[in-house]
Every structure is written in C-alpha cells, then in structure tokens.
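User: Can you help me understand a structure? I only have the sequence.
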Amino acid sequence: MDLNFRLATPDDIFKIIELYHVIYGSNYREPLMNQYELMKPFLEKPGSYWFIAEPKNAGKNAPIIASVVVRYDEENRLAKAFGAVVLAEHRRGGLMESLLDHAIQYMQTHTAGADVVYATTRTVHEGAQALTERLGFKKLGIFPNSHKNVEYETHCLTAAYYQNSIDNRFEDYALHEKLRGLVSIVSEEIPQMGNLKFITPAPPTRTHIDPPQLEMITSEHFVRYRYEKLKREKELQFTFFPFHEPNTLVLSPDQSIEIFCYHSPGDAYSVIIGGKVDPAINYSSLFNTIANLLRDHQARYVEILVRADKPKIIESILKAKFIPSAFFPAFQLHQGKRYDYVVMNKTFEVFDFQNIRLKGLNQKYLEEYFNHWKQSSLTPKMLQIF
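Assistant: Let's start by predicting it. Here is the structure, written out as tokens:
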C-alpha cells in the first residue's frame, strides 16, 4: 500500500481519537489521545508535532492507520517522541519505523535542529524496543511500574544522538559511586563517554532540619501561573523536566518551600518537576515527605531528574529511597554544553514482571535496578535470603 506521511490538522482529530480507541479501547490513560479539548490546542501549540500515516490518494475520508507525536524544546535542542500506534493489520513491514524516521528528519529540517531525540518504549513485547534500536536509539535505563493501563507497565528509556551531542558533554565532574553499575551499562551503548570518575560524597558539614508541615494544592491554573512567575524571577533552584507542565504544588505554610509536580491519578504516575527550598532543609526528609503526599493522592510511581554532577543532592535523594533507574548523557543544553542527568524514582506498587519481554541491555538495567532496591529496602539478614 502506498502511504502518505504528514502532520495532523484539527480536521483529523476525531479520526485520531478513533485510531487510539480501536487499538486500546478505553484503557489508554493519556488524556491527550482521547480528548478533543486537549488535542486541538496541542496541535496549534508551538513545539508540538503530530505525524500521521494514511493511504495515498484515498481522498478526504482516508483512514488514519498510524500516529506518533513529537514535542520539541528549542532551548535544549531536544525532542521527545511518544504515543506511537499502528492499526494491527498494518504492523508488519516497518510502517512505524518509517513514520518515526520521517518525524525525526522533519524535526531536523523544519526546526532549529534536534541534538537529542528520546522515547520510552513499552516492554509487553520486544517490537517497540527493536524499532528504536534499528533507528539508532541507545538504551539508557528502565522505569518499573511507571504507567498503568489495564495493569502496571514497565517502560524503557532510549535516545538518539545527532550533531556530535555526546562529544559536547560537560565532563569535568565526578559521579556518585552508587551510580557506577548503572553508568557502566550505559557505557556499553555509548562508549564515547570515556573514562568517568566516581566519588563517595563527604558527609554534610552542618546539621539540616526536617521540613515543616507540607500541604498539596491541585489547582492546575494557579500552579502553572505560580511556576512560571517563580521561573521568570529566577527563584527556582531546579527547573529542568522537559515536556511536563506542573499541575500540583507541595508547599510549606510560609512558602519557603514550593515544589512543583505533575500528577496523573489516572495512571498513578507523578514527577517532581522543580521548585525552591530553604537551604537549611534536609533534602532526604523533604523528598520522602513529598513522595508520601503524592502516594496519598493515588500516585504509585514518583520520578525526579537530578543533574549528574550534583553527587550530594543524589546522596540525599538516595537516602529518601529513590532508586536510580536511568542515566541520560547530554540531556540538557546549558551555556553551550550538554549536561548528563540521572533519573531516580520510587514505586509504591508490588512489582510484577511476568508480562514483560526485555531486549538486550534492558535486562541488565532491570537487574541493576533490583540490586539498588535490595540494598535500600532489605536488612542484612534479608539480603542473605535474596
């Protein structure tokens, strides 16, 4: 079948919704794919691209048979591909591979350029993992129980690198010693990272205090307004979590602590995006409290990004029992250099991996994840059993 690849328009919305419904029924938890009132402004928003495949010369009523979405961040020359679907009868023959390759080439020629393109892949079968591998994506980690459709799903992180982005990394730093195993797996995929240094952070030189009582605000429009205001005024200590917009705010009564999150009760997924914190606060206690607040509001998975050259912050978050699950080289572009990041998460769900099919290094990432989990969650006696 001859196919036409193009960008979707608002006239395609109902056919796109039908495509996702045919494939997933009512079990696809991403609201963007099934709500007209979200999809229409998305299609009109700068940096948002929705690629579709349809039969060539089939006219106005041509069915949409495949779809993939790309978000683009010009400041960081970064793109994210997600939501890839193909009708079952068209899954052989490399249709999605061709559509995703078309999308990447489009981004390189119709924007300021994408140094890094990343995607997460499902693990219920090997097809998605093999597809990104054929397009040159590198495996960077694993996210156990990160999303819930019919049941909790484990996803893998992959990224493709262009324009010598790996060579443009900031390298003058030492990684936290407990990242050694994870980073060694990434180095198998990206040997250009070279010889990395590792350290055990020195204990803090002053006593930190536990955070005061924290509360949660879920007023989406206020939260977004407040986040943008503090960002403009440069009051946020950490703000980098691309393609997520906050809809939840965790704060202290005096607002000395304001932590912005994206929270989706529908699939029990949450991320800590950024915020401002009194420097006297104990980070371990703070992030443990935030995770528990999100858990009490139906989150079963909580994620945070930490710049890899911040070993003391990583140490604090490790003590809050977040587990490093992915290492993302050259993720952020800042003052002409690309910075590495660690993805850390905490899950509150019982692990169940009977339905996953891991390909290549993804199996190693899962094993490394459980090594960290055992060290952080089991007593020495229990470690002897496991």
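Now, to help you interpret it: The longest helix spans residues 361-377. The longest strand covers residues 323-334. Let me know which part you'd like to focus on.
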